[in-house]
Amino acid sequence: VIKFDNSYTKLPQGFFAAQKPVSVTPHALIAFNQDLAKFLQMNFESLSSAELAQIFTGQTLLPGSEPIALAYAGHQFGHFNPQLGDGRALLLGETFGEDGQRYDVQLKGSGRTPFSRGGDGKSQLGPVLREFIVSEAFHHLRIPTTRSLAAVQTEETIFRMSTQPGAILTRVALSHIRIGTFEFFAKQQDFSKVRTLADYTIDRLYPDLTHDAEGYAELLNQVMLRQVTLINHWLSVGFIHGVMNTDNCTISGQTIDFGPCAFMDEYKKEKVFSSIDRGGRYAYGHQPRILFWNLCRLAECLIPLIDGQDLKRAVRTVEKVLENYTSLHETRYQDVMSQKIGLSSDQFDVLHKLLGLMEKHALDFTLTFRDLSEALQKDTLPESFAKSSELNTWFTDWKSTLVAQKLSLTEVAEDMDRINPLYIPRNHQIEHSIQLACEGDYRLFQDMNALLKNPFTQQLEHHELHAPPLVEERITETFCGT
Ligand code: AMP
Ligand code: MG
């Protein structure tokens, strides 16, 4: 049913711990992602929901599966923790997608492993549903992300801040190697293992690179490129990851770990949702700065590989790579953001001004761009802009800029609607869907998943889910739920 072809298990001792899934009783298969299963060339057609629930809780191990928990370390909120690792996750094995790429198939919430420390290795239903909705929404927003193959509710009751049913998510990733995986071996001064990891990473994710000093420096550069692309996608849809620790920063450039993450409703540059992010370290507008900080941690791990004899020379090499960060990010940022209003980056100031006004007038980040394109089409003023003369003036100026460029306003509006989503997984709806699911009603969870498959296209069914929260529906804080 799944053709496993495992490579991580062939790495030396210390990279992982073999671990059988813990025994648990499945309650029900909540979601199974048929499209993703097909993409992964899996064949589950003849299996019942009950059989799938057994598989995706680890109770039935498929042939070829070699479950392991991966070792990693990481900087959490700036503080180094030498020993993190898969404390509530288990890699079942690797398989190939239709695109010819290798993918990890991992259970999350499947019970204790040698890396669990004080934790129970389990997950509540809420965080599983949240990750399912948001990661799949990301995929359909064309943002690099891990995906969700299945979600199963268990018979357990899990206590965190409140009591919820237990659940297990099956996550699919291009790989689970993080900056923290490099830090794990670098901290131990085991540079032969750092090199093994770098070589494995190159073979798996960056096969064009060479296994030498030049290749390792280029690895840093390539990870930087992918991560810069990634976080600019986040910024362009108003997403706040919430825990950009180095252990949550993938080498593949995919978004990982949808914990206290959230899309903002009204635009605010310093917006924070996560209850544990007291200082706003991971606020919306700080994400580029934090990514740079994280990349510096990766660079430190690679230095001894680039030149073990002359460290100063190696430091200069990585500095040369990292020096490009700011201009790379800024170019990218101005590109993606200007595009949202149909302009190129040399007119970024128009967009910049809009953001300032959006913040001042507490406009909805998502709907503003759809309102603007609609107003272009209809040759009217967006309703949300009518209330203020500055917004009014901005709109007129923007339109003249477009006209001066001899652009067809209809075409601009159509282009805008292709990149500015109408539907995002809004926080209050995610929370509501979790609350209902805990009472046994999965309809909202399913409706959201269905709607978010086409985030750019207006849909009659469930269109009400486009709306920002009413004052009494507003969610001000999110929790990591571990
Ligand atoms: P996260 O906040 O999900 O990035 O997790 C950070 C670290 O805490 C990782 O090493 C996890 O494996 C571990 N962890 C989180 N929740 C649990 C849990 N319930 N039981 C054991 N380990 C956990
Ligand atoms: Mg994590």
Characterize the overall form: globular
| Content of β-strand | 5-15%
Q: Give the topology string: H per helix, E per strand.
A: EEHHEEEEEHEEHHHEEHHHHHHHHH
Q: Which class do the helix and strand fractions yield? A: alpha+beta
Tell me about the largest β-sheet: 5 strands, antiparallel
Unreliable segments (pLDDT under 50, ≥5 consecutive)?
Answer: none
Report how far the terminal alpha carbons are from each other: 31 Å
Helix percentage range? 40-55%
Say how many strands there are. 11
Give the overall pLDDT as a whole number: 97
Which molecules are bound in this entry? adenosine monophosphate, magnesium ion
Radius of gyration: 23 Å
Widest sheet: strand order? Answer: 2-8-9-7-6
Number of helices: 15
Protein model, in words:
By secondary structure, this protein is an alpha+beta fold. Helices cover 41% and strands 13% of the residues. It has a 5-stranded antiparallel β-sheet, with helices on both faces. The protein has a two-stranded antiparallel ribbon with strand order 1-3. Helix 5 packs across helix 7, helix 6 packs parallel to helix 8 and helix 6 runs parallel beside helix 9. The longest helix has 25 residues. The radius of gyration is 23 Å and the shape is globular. It starts with 15 loop residues before the first strand and ends in a 31-residue tail after the last helix. It binds adenosine monophosphate (AMP) and magnesium ion (MG).
